[in-house]
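Lab notebook, bench 4. Still working through the backlog of constructs that have no structural model yet. Next entry is a single chain of 185 residues. Request: give me the structure tokens for it.
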Amino acid sequence: MNNLELLPVDSGKKMAELFAKVELFETYMECFALPPYEEHFTADEVEQLFARYAEKGLIILCLDMELYRCAGFFAAVPLVEDQEVAQIAQDNGLNVADFWFVEEVGVGKAYRHKQIFSTMEQELRKRIPVQGLLSRTKKINTASLKAHKKLGYRIVPGMTQVVKYQHLSGEERRDERVFMKYWPK
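Model written out:
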């Protein structure tokens, strides 16, 4: 990964110090403002989300040390910390205590196809106290589904969630997300 370096973030204070310095918002928007998501967020919303993820769980940032810019992000929390998703998981027969939930993951356009997603995910696995990971993506996000599958994730049959979001047009929209789980053999 040449000039790329992983940086774990496990406190809201540390995340607040890094947020603007590493251009996390810009990378986040690169990932979610374009299709298939086309979602609108403010910098404050994203900063608050990541501060919460850092306080409750762990963020792995991949930094381009030459530009000191965020190349990718991977944020996860113990599944019990996301009550809505924890309930969906429990309703689908998963033991909530056995999983962490991947809240956010993305890789900037210039850094894609360089194994950054898998490197961040593997680093997270080393650092969490459970073996299972649960992730969610848009049903039509074939790139995300393919990347997860390469790492051993499998779709949980019938486990979905309708997510409400603000589209770039300003209107509120809904779409269905599918869940995938990683559980080592």
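Notes after review: The first helix runs from residue 12 to 18. The beta strands are 4-9, 58-64, 69-78, 99-107, 132-138, 154-166, 172-182. Flag for follow-up if needed.
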